[in-house]
Design a protein that fits this description.
The structure holds four protein chains of four kinds. Chain C is mainly α. Helix content of chain C is 79%, strand content 0%. Chain C is built from three helices and no strands. Chain D contains 16 helices and no strands. The longest helix of chain D has 36 residues. The chains are: A alpha+beta, B alpha+beta, C mainly alpha, D mainly alpha. Chain D: Belongs to the heme-copper respiratory oxidase family.
């Protein structure tokens, strides 16, 4: 925090623009990105930028020249000409030709972006208020990706780390040199999935499916954000892509699937109330606090309070039902797919025992996991 | 006075144009649907109903991906039986989506289809489907919803794979409001 | 010189308005003899033609790009 | 009603001065009074919306949440946009038209004086309703001034209904204003003032008024559809019922793009009045200016989807809207060339209105260039919904529309008040505004390109420096508007007596009447001055 302030003051206001190139961390331009398409976009951007600069120099040049030379104070006399069709036609045709010159590379780049040739990997991306869900369609793997910047940093109670607001709990891991197709949709309102390094920005629209493609050239971590106003925490749903080699990707897939099973298995052991409360607080802050607030007091008129509420202090079955299945017609989502059984149990336990809600009872993960899998449960019986 | 008469006539015309434009605002809704149908904008599916199958075009293969999307806290388990189907243009394919209501209450849902790329929408012909139909499931109940479709042989060459997604919306509150008001009326 | 612009002149005037350049002489002719409704109708017609022209341009660009 | 009629009759007979007390303002049908009301109202809204902008910039001064909650931040961005568009810029233009159009064309008053009174007095109620939503349960509208569904329907706070009615009222007010201006320009021109002698400000306003009549009802339609979706169970924009959220964007931008021109065409008109005055030379290419304005107005209906390049339009659609948008740059460029050619070989002086007009030409053109960059669809995927867009439209609207309004205000203040302006204070205001506006909005290009999305209350650390610069600039710009307020009040209260022709090079009927303009001008049709015959 202090560091940033010093840099700003040090660079000075007027010098800021010129000092830009001297400081590596300053970005004043588009990223060239790490895909063929993103580099074309960057080149196109620069081409058009320089054309605009050139036109500006000519137009403003003439203007300032007139301002300087044709001042009354220098004794300039007004020449009363006010029409010249030939000149006007010329200065209309020249911009038209320049525009044609711009349209050609623009069209080529756009066609390249829409190249819908066969993709090797399909990833479904679903926007949620306010997180993303990634679903590796042919690999039986899906997960949510939440902002992982701690609340204390946002509320200025802790120092902000390097990737402040651009870090998530689970990266979207993608292989390099692979044609990837993103299928975008939304769970609630319109979001927009944007990763500058890939030059991909596509809206995620509820009820509709959108496509985008990419081939990443270099392994690395690429960060992006939601680009369409989607409600309160629109600024807090970043995207982090981790591009890895094709082999590493296969390895990661296997690990991730094994992990998922371990989490499911963890639900079967017995948890203590303290353990549940501890994990519950973390889950609550991550998944619930945006609306119900860390204090459980909610926002009157928009999001109900949990502190002392009928549901959080009443019958446990109703509480579990609303957390698992959401409430239709409200912002309350169904968390059955978003959280694991132990996380669900923990957060419900937490809500029933925090902020003076002191029921003292624990909801066991096993109890939740039975509710989560009724169909498979039946099939096994 | 002449000017006042002129003014009155002009005002009448301008107010009339306003009313016309207000109507035009609403006319944009059906116009947009027509526009979507013509240009394939937005991947709305308009072709449903019986179709004459003339034998598949075996020289081309099309990958159809089926997707199931839940909307707004829709707790149902909902998914395609086959996630990926290889087909030929002109070939009739049958598949299904399954849905289960895991909650302890009766719920009504509606599935809305969408196709990507949007321009492929007009070439995806669904012989029968459950789209736009209300589906009621009691607590714990499951259902299989069949889907029979053909891809038109006129599908543009460059489209080699397309995605058909169904988004499941929970419309229980709306339905229960409608039902209760119906009950009140019948009483 | 007749005061009333011919159909061809009307078309040219509307075209030049799309282009954004018009000479003083033609403008005087338009406003002396012309009837606004003619210009509005021609304008709408030309707008429609403009749309068609751009659509054709897009088609042509797409066929060149092979998409 | 009785009072209204009496006032009207008093006005029609034209031998009385203004009524006394508050009644003068409530029941006035005098175009000058109503123009004054509009202008003061828009100044009030400009400061209200400006305070909201400063709240936004204060929150964005540093990363982290310091002053406001994200929810309130969204309410601020929404209200700032709505108030500035519908409360500050549009009423200011209507106010200028009310004052100047009758005087420019030699008319005794507006064509429909009573409707004029209503169209103004609706506005305070509309905005009172809109601003009152800030104090309602669930807060004010928080979905951006573009209010995309379903965030503004299914997910909206309950106050959205008040917002919808406020928009309806503003729409009715704008439409009545537009009808009045059209009727005045078409029917009340003094004999000899043919259409082709019409001052350019009247021309651009005439075309703007037609745009208003064409698109405000569409806006009314779209908010009515929202209302029906929210309260009457229809599904225009609700995917669950077979509707389409993207349809909302199409209908909204069908209104929204012409709306952008509604906010800039009258500005073109003002600048086209001011530059010839201070260059002491007739406007270059008057005919082209008129024709190009008409062409921009028509083309503005054909480019709306360039606001939605990322919603997933098929390739052909993207290309269509990209080409059409690029072409619209041609008539706009022609205007800039014409202004420069007007200055070329003139005899220029640089009084405050001219300074604002020159800044308009330069900074609006910069906004035009970033607009051209945004028109290129493949690159727009990177720019869309970032601060680059914010920089672009603020360049077009603040040093564009707002500077033009200020230039017009300074230009005509002597005519309104009878006093010349304190040039030193005017120049101080200009330079503070000019510097402030650039410090505020220029760095936004950089943070946008670097990847900062718009409408976020908090941001990553790499955007911190430029955001801080922008916030400092915003406060410079905001506070310097107090100088403007001071200037206007000082000019109303006193100052050097203004001559009828307050500026040496000024041409036109409005400069033939004494300054301040008498309460009733042109009770008998005037003779056109030599220069306009």
């Amino acid at each position: 925090m202090v560091r940033i302030t010093t840099i700003t003051i040090g660079s000075g206001l007027g010098l800021a623009l010129f000092a830009a190139s001297a400081q590596a961390e300053w970005t004043v331009n588009l990223t060239p990105g790490v895909t063929d398409v993103s580099r074309s976009v960057f080149d196109l951007h620069m081409t058009i930028f320089w054309i605009c600069v050139a036109i500006a120099l000519v137009v403003f040049g003439v203007m300032f020249w007139s301002i300087f030379h044709h001042r009354k104070s220098r004794g300039a006399e007004a020449h009363n000409f006010h029409e010249n069709t030939v000149v006007e036609v010329i200065w209309t045709i020249i911009p038209l030709l320049i525009l044609v010159g711009m349209a050609v590379p623009a069209t080529a780049t756009l066609v390249k972006m829409y190249d819908s040739s066969e993709a090797e990997l399909d990833v479904q991306i679903t926007g949620f208020q306010w997180k993303w869900r990634y679903d590796y369609l042919d690999h039986n793997l899906d997960f949510f990706s939440n902002l992982s910047t701690p609340r204390e940093q946002i509320s200025n109670e802790a120092d902000k780390q390097e990737h402040y607001l651009l870090e998530v709990d689970r990266h979207l891991v993608l292989p390099v040199d692979t044609k990837i197709r993103f299928l975008l949709t939304s769970n609630d309102v319109i979001h927009s999935w944007w990763v500058p390094a890939l030059a991909v920005k596509k809206d995620a629209i509820p009820g509709f499916i959108n496509e985008a493609w990419t081939v990443i050239d270099e392994p690395g971590i690429y960060r992006g954000q939601c680009a369409e106003l989607c409600g309160q925490d629109h600024g807090f749903m970043p995207i982090v892509i981790e591009a890895v080699s094709r082999d590493d990707f296969q390895q990661w897939l296997a690990d991730a699937r094994a992990d998922k099973q371990r989490v499911t298995a963890a639900a079967e052991r017995t948890w203590t109330l303290d353990e549940l409360m501890q994990q519950g607080e973390q889950v609550y802050l991550r998944a619930c606090a945006a609306c119900h607030l860390p204090t459980g007091e909610g926002v009157p008129g928009a999001f109900p309070a949990l502190k002392g509420s009928a549901i959080a202090t009443g019958e446990v079955a109703a509480h579990i039902d609303i957390v698992l299945n959401g409430k239709s017609g409200t912002a309350m989502q169904a968390f059955r797919d978003q959280l694991s059984a132990s996380e669900l149990a923990a957060v419900i336990t937490y809500e029933r025992n925090a902020w003076g809600n002191s029921l003292g009872e624990a909801v066991s993960p096993a109890q939740i996991s039975r509710l989560l899998e009724p169909t498979t449960g039946e099939a096994e019986q | 006075m002449n000017v006042q008469a002129d003014n009155r006539r002009l005002v009448r015309r301008l107010v009339f144009s306003c009313v016309l434009m207000f109507g035009f605002g609403f006319a944009l809704v059906p116009l947009y649907d027509v526009f979507c149908e013509v240009t394939g904008l937005n991947g709305k599916i308009t072709n449903t109903g019986p179709v004459a199958v003339e034998g598949p075009d075996l020289s081309r293969q099309v990958r159809v991906r089926l997707l199931a999307v839940h909307n707004e806290g829709m707790p149902w388990e909902f998914g395609p039986v086959d996630g990926l189907i290889e087909t030929h243009p002109g070939e009739m394919k049958q598949t299904a989506f399954h849905a289960t209501n895991p909650t302890g209450r009766r719920m009504v849902a509606q599935a809305i289809p969408s196709v990507a790329p949007a321009e492929a929408a007009e070439y995806l012909h669904k012989v029968n489907c459950f789209c736009f139909e209300q589906q009621t499931l009691l607590a714990g109940e499951s259902v299989q919803m069949p889907l029979l479709f053909v891809i038109d042989k006129k599908l543009p060459e460059h489209i080699r794979s397309l995605t058909l997604s169904y988004t499941l919306f929970d419309i229980s509150p709306e339905v229960s409001v409608a039902e209760s008001s119906e009950k009140e009326q019948s009483l | 010189m007749s005061d009333k612009p011919t159909l061809w002149q009307t078309l040219l005037s509307v075209l030049s308005s799309f282009f954004g350049v018009q000479s003083e002489r033609n403008r005087e002719r338009d406003f002396h003899g012309g009837h606004p409704v003619h210009y509005i109708l021609t304008g709408l017609l030309m707008a429609a033609l403009f749309v068609i022209a751009v659509i054709l341009l897009v088609r042509w660009a797409l066929s060149l790009a092979g998409a | 009603m009785n009072t209204l009629d009496t006032t009207l009759h008093a006005g029609e007979h034209g031998h009385h001065g203004p009524a006394k007390g508050i009644g003068r303002w409530l029941f006035t049908t005098n175009h000058k009074d109503i123009g004054t009301l509009y202008l003061w109202f828009s100044l009030l809204m400009f400061f209200t919306g400006g305070c909201m902008a400063l709240m936004i910039r204060a929150e964005l001064f540093q990363p982290g949440l310091q002053l406001v909650e994200p929810g309130f931040f969204n309410q601020m961005t929404t209200m700032h946009g709505l108030i500035m568009v519908f409360g500050a810029v549009m009423p200011a233009f209507v106010g200028l038209a009310n004052w100047m159009v009758p005087m420019m064309i030699g008319a005794p008053d507006m064509a429909l004086p009573r409707m004029n009174n209503w169209s103004f007095w609706i506005l305070p109620f509309a905005f009172a309703m809109m601003i009152s939503t800030l104090f309602m349960d669930g807060g004010a509208p928080n979905f951006g001034w573009t209010f995309y569904a379903p965030l503004s329907t299914t997910y909206a706070p309950p106050s959205v209904t008040y917002f919808i009615f406020a928009i309806h009222m503003m729409g009715i007010s704008s439409i009545m204003g537009a009808i009045n201006i059209i009727a005045t320009i078409l029917n009340l021109r003094v004999p000899g003032m043919t259409m082709m002698k019409l001052p350019l400000f009247c021309w651009t306003w005439l075309i703007t008024a037609f745009l208003l009549i064409a698109v405000m009802p569409v806006l009314a339609g779209v908010v009515t559809m929202m209302l029906m979706d929210i309260h009457f169970g229809t599904s225009f924009f609700n995917a669950a019922g077979g509707g389409d959220p993207v349809l909302f964007q199409h209908v909204f931008w069908f209104f929204g793009h012409p709306e952008v021109y509604i906010m800039i065409l009258p500005a073109f008109g003002i600048i086209s009045q001011i530059i010839p005055t201070f260059a002491r030379k007739r406007l270059f290419g008057y005919a082209s200016m008129v024709y190009a304005t008409a062409s921009i107005a028509i083309l503005s209906f054909l480019v709306w989807a360039h606001h939605m390049f990322t919603v997933g339009i098929p390739l052909a659609g993207e290309l269509f809207f990209m080409f059409a948008t690029m072409l619209i740059a041609v008539p706009t460029g022609v205007k800039v060339f014409n202004w420069v050619a007007t200055m070329f070989r003139g005899s220029m002086t640089f009084e405050t209105p001219m300074l604002f007009a020159l800044a308009f030409v330069v900074l609006f053109t910069i906004g035009g260039f970033s607009g051209l960059m945004l028109a290129i669809a493949p690159v727009d995927f990177q720019y869309h919904d970032t601060y680059f867009v914010v920089a672009h439209f603020h360049y077009v609207l603040v040093p564009g529309a707002v500077f033009a309004i200020m230039a017009g205000a300074y230009y005509w203040l002597p005519k309104w008040t009878g006093h010349m302006l304190d040039e030193r204070m005017g120049k101080l205001h200009f330079w503070l505004s000019f510097i402030g506006v650039n410090i505020t909005f220029f760095p936004m290009h950089f943070i946008g390109l670097a990847g900062m999305p718009r409408r976020i209350p908090d941001y990553a650390l790499q955007f911190a420096d430029f955001n801080m610069v922008a916030s400092i600039g915003a406060f410079i710009f905001g506070l310097s508007q107090l100088v403007f307020l001071w200037n206007v009040i000082a000019c109303v209260r006193g100052g050097e007596k203004a001559a009828a022709r307050s500026w040496e090079g000024a041409e036109g009927l409005e400069w033939e009447v004494p300054s301040p303009a008498p309460y009733h001008t042109f009770a008998t049709p005037p003779k056109l001055p030599e220069s306009q015959r």
